[in-house]
Amino acid sequence: MSNLRYANMCHWKAIPYKQIKNFREFYYEDKTNTAYYSDWDRLLRYQKALGFDGIELAPWDLADILPLFGSPEAYKAFAAERGIEVVGMFHGAHACHDASKFDEVVRAGKEAVDTIVRFGGEQMNTCPTDNYYGIGPLSRQQVQDCAKAINEIGRYATDHGVKVGLHNEFFCGINRENHREFIEMTDARFVHYCIDTAQISILGENLLEFYDTYADRISGFHLKDTADPNQPDSVRYSQDPEIQDDGKRWFWEPGEGVLDFEALYRLLKKHKYQGWITLETDGSPDYLASMALSRYYIDSKLKPIYE
Amino acid sequence: MRVSEFSVSLDMINRHYSEPNRNRYESKYYWEELYTLINAAGFGSIEIPFEPVWQFGGRSGVPLTPYCVNTKYGDLSAYRAFLQSCGISKVTAVTFDPSLFARNDQMGFYFGATKHFALQAIDFAAGLGAKYLVLSPSASIGRLTHYHPGLIANKAPFVEELSKVVAEIAAVAASKEVKLLLRPEYWSVLSLDETLDLVKASSGHLGIAFNAAHLHLADSDVLSFLEQHCDLIDYVQLSDTKHSSAASFKTDANPAFPSHNATQVFCDVGTGVLPLTSILTKLTSLKYSGHIVLCNHQTRDPNRALLRNRRFINQISPFAPEVHYV
Q1: Is the whole-model pTM more than 0.80?
Q2: Does any CB of chain A come closer than 8 Å to the CB of residue B251?
Q3: N or C end: fewer C-beta atoms under 10 angstroms in chain B?
């Protein structure tokens, strides 16, 4: 039995078809590769073929997924038929630094937990509050209010078999100066941490030291590389920095950036990590190619260290 | 008829659906080159879809909301000046589809968000110098009925509320010298007759945006429609399809992607079965003097679509000599 299971974070964007049964006919309509990227059936089969047995859903896709499948349960069954299980769903705890929105934030978090349970998932990787630009710097009280809301969501999630994993991004209101303070303010019984390897490196954390320090709280990983760790305030605090005007990418497939994943896997072995590793290739022009490239890297470089 | 120019809708860019290289559409550089390519293909004006989704989550590289434009250019005037520098001298209309807000079982949320963002769309249109806001009357039947299963069986309250919201939006639009136009769509909850009734009852505050492929797919004879309702039509979108009817898929969850048989419903202008030359000739005989916009919904290749559009225009001249264009 492997210690590690691999999933894929869903960044395909809206997928218009459940299953294309007239594949050849559809292909011949315009003879482009559109047919290859238009149905859940094929995308899930690509995942399975490349050894990514789980999928983490994106909440912004639900408005398309639910009318298409009818219900979370129907999606879960469809994925299971192809050997894929829903690991969980990303969640944005927007405005959780604002005490006046506590009830609204907690209600949205609980609804997201309920949705995940219906999909059969067990993880809710949660980004605390909004982008730094517009709300930062946060006061100590605002950071505490973030923690209070996340703790409440985490308590509810735990009761329903879902693990809330904090997922910090390099441009969030929770940023380099209060990242660890915030983690310490959350309740370790109910709130865990999902390390997005690239995001926290761009934020300015030392990936290896961070994991070594917080290993007991880690509930999952978003595995991706970056060529640009440790970005200055002027970038992290800027307006809408995630998508750059000139097409510059922050994120790359493992092995295509500068992060030391082999050292990270030695630490996974040290701490006997067991659970999901979720590949995330946002920003890639071709998710299928990125998945295949990542699988080769995992199998050739990382698997020999820890699996 | 003298058509001073044909316009191109930015709707041809696939902003939402999975395909390789789609990520480039989220960066500013892509759009800034696109404007110059549109101009290089011989077009000097554009239509812009207003899509609030791009201001959620920091995707401001997609220039489809005031927030995005203000973030990247400072204000709408500076954006217009930038367009001008790329050879785009006019924005003919802003379009708005409220499908984004069909996402839960709260009809109050659907109408509230539709109105809230329609008002933003009006400001967007006014700030861009566009004379029209083209509104999709409703989200698609399939999407709405997923969240509101009893909608069709008890449609009257929906139509009543929609009529009220449309009237409110139209009044605000008129106060800002923007005219609200309803675009009949084959997947709409509002039937063609109901849409026309709404427009006729507005005493000129509302108009019709004629979209050729949508009307054709709704089983309407497009030439007869023009003949009968020309006085209500303020704006023409030339779009195309290879299909004869949408009867078998108009109520699907995603009616642009028929579930029983995958197909590209819309095709690049000039490559389908619509009698586009006859439409232009008919518009000429009816002395239509408004904009004509080329809508390449669902194109697989925007650059090829632009060249196909230019080829189409080059080809119509011998067959419709009464249509003058520059």
Answers
A1: yes
A2: no
A3: C
Query: Both tokens of residue B189?
Result: 């909850």
**By C-alpha distance, which of A282, A135, A27, A31 is closest to B59?**
A282
Nearest to A240 among B23, B60, B262 (CB): B60
Q: How far apart are CA B101 and CA B296, in angstroms?
A: 24
CATH architecture, domain A4-302: Alpha-Beta Barrel (3.20)
In 3-state terms, what secondary structure has residue A303?
coil
Q: How far does B210 lie from chain A, in Å, by closest CA?
A: 26
The highest-level CATH class for domain B2-325 is alpha beta
Q: How far apart are CA A146 and CA A143, in angstroms?
A: 5
Q: How far apart are CA B80 and CA B127, in angstroms?
A: 9
Strand partners, B267: B240
The interface predicted TM-score of the complex, written ipTM, equals: 0.95
| Beta-strand relationship, A218-223 and A123-128 | unpaired
Residues of B in contact with A25 (CB under 8 A): 261-262
CA distance A68 to chain B (A): 6
Give, as one character, the DSSP assignment of residue A37: G
Tens-digit pLDDT string for chain B (326 aa):
444 479 999 999 999 999 999 999 999 999 999 999 999 999 999 999 999 999 887 899 999 999 999 999 999 999 999 999 999 999 999 999 999 999 999 999 999 999 999 999 999 999 999 999 999 999 999 999 999 999 999 999 999 999 999 999 999 999 999 999 999 999 999 999 999 999 999 988 999 999 999 999 999 999 999 999 999 999 999 999 999 999 999 999 999 999 999 999 999 999 999 999 999 999 999 999 999 999 999 999 999 999 999 999 998 876 565 565 43
Other CB atoms within 10 A of residue A194 CB: 27
